[in-house]
Amino acid sequence: MKSKKGIVFKGIFFLGIIVGSAALLFLDRPSVQSAALLVVLVWASARFYYFLFYVLEKYVDPSLQYSGLIALMTALARRRRDRT
Hints:
Order of helices and strands: HHH
Largest sheet: none
Radius of gyration: 17 Å
């Protein structure tokens, strides 16, 4: 995707999914524990995303440049196949 407006729309769309899902989960079982677990889930998901798309490329293997999870899995499967 190269359109700046499209990228911004995609980001806002994902934010809407996150907020909507969190709200529905919290409304299903409204408690401090549910709220805390949702906060931890969002935080850990963001850190995992950062790990996959920045840390692996910058600190583990600079050749691991990919555009998404499917591209990463394909690249890793190809590497594994080439080694055997």
